[in-house]
């Protein structure tokens, strides 16, 4: 490192390097698991993730003719649900930074003969040019994976039209040693990791527990959203506190 840099410059260079490392790591994880992503999602959640996603979409009430984005769309589950509601007169754009998982989303839309969804490969934090473009934004199991949750929420705010709404579904970061926290750890350690091990994907699924630990809790998420400028920020838990849904209105 350059000797002439002062301490804060060194810190920010280090932060940048760490952010870059996390971005690459996350992208590699999702490219690697992409071919088994839907299969393992169904298996590990006993199919329940589909219900939780449907619940998120029901809460958001996308309307025909509106423009929506599914951020960190993965294989596009939310994008498909939203397209049923807003298209053909509206639009839905699925955005993800991992090429392989997005290719699966594209293949799924070919199979479903869904020509409405626009797929874009992009880092959510680096989206430019869609400012105030969307009536609604949804994100499932994506915010937790971003380099910076606050920047992610700011990005959602910038992308939304005035009065636009957004919904985020993710693991709930519950209070340490609470019943739901203990259940979550047991579920991840005794079910998720061993099953993913059968497919040589355990390091990738071990990452979930660490990412939940670093993810803001309910009140922190609400505080960030209010500071960013959202008029309404409400958080509710589902499935006995295992998952959380954050609803935001600009
Ligand atoms: C756990 S998956 C969730 C996929 C999908 N939304 C679902 O619920 O099934 C997280 C997704 O976020 C994507 N992702 C992570 N960081 C991202 C970023 N900075 N920009 C765009 N996509 C990102 C990953 O590539 C991955 O597809």
How far apart lie the N and C ends? 43 Å
Give the strand order, joined by hyphens, for the main sheet.
3-2-1-4-5-7-6
Using the coordinates shown, work out and report the CATH topology: Rossmann fold
Content-based structural category:
alpha/beta
**Percent of residues in helices:** 40-55%
Instruction: Give the uncertain stretches in residue-range form.
Output: none
Proportion of beta-strand residues: 15-25%
Bound molecules: S-adenosylmethionine
Helix-strand string: HHHEHEHEEHEHHHEE
- CATH H level, superfamily name: Vaccinia Virus protein VP39
CATH class division: Alpha Beta
Question: How many domains, in number, for the residues?
Answer: 1
Number of alpha- plus pi-helical segments: 9
Task: Please provide the count of β strands.
Answer: 7
Major sheet attributes:
7 strands, mixed
CATH architecture: 3-Layer(aba) Sandwich
Secondary-structure map with pairings?
Blueprint: H1 7-33, H2 37-44, H3 48-60, E1 67-71, H4 77-86, E2 91-96, H5 99-111, E3 117-121, E4 134-140, H6 149-159, E5 160-171, H7 179-197, H8 202-213, H9 218-228, E6 232-238, E7 243-249
The structure holds S-adenosylmethionine.
The site of S-adenosylmethionine has 19 residues, from helix 1.
């Amino acid at each position: 490192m350059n000797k002439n840099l002062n301490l804060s410059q060194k810190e920010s260079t280090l932060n940048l390097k760490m952010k870059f490392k996390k971005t690459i790591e996350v992208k590699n994880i999702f490219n690697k698991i992409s071919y088994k992503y839907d299969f393992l999602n169904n298996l590990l959640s006993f199919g329940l993730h589909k219900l939780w996603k449907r619940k998120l979409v029901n809460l958001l009430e996308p309307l025909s003719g509106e423009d929506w984005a599914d951020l960190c769309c993965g294989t596009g589950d939310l994008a498909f649900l939203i397209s049923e509601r807003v298209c053909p007169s509206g639009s839905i754009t699925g955005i993800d930074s991992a090429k392989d998982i997005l290719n699966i989303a594209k293949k799924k839309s070919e199979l479903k003969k869904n020509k409405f969804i626009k797929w874009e490969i992009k880092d959510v934090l680096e989206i430019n040019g869609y400012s105030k473009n969307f009536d609604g934004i949804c994100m499932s199991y994506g915010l937790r994976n971003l380099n910076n949750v606050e920047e992610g929420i700011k990005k959602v705010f910038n992308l939304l039209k005035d009065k636009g709404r957004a919904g985020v579904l993710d693991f709930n970061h519950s209070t340490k040693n609470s019943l739901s926290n203990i259940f979550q750890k047991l579920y991840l350690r005794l079910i998720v990791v061993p099953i993913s091990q059968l497919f040589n994907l355990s390091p990738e699924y071990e990452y979930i527990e660490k990412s939940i630990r670093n993810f803001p809790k309910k009140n922190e998420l609400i505080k960030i959203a209010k500071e960013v400028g959202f008029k309404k920020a409400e958080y509710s838990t589902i499935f006995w506190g295992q998952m959380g849904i954050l609803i935001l209105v600009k």
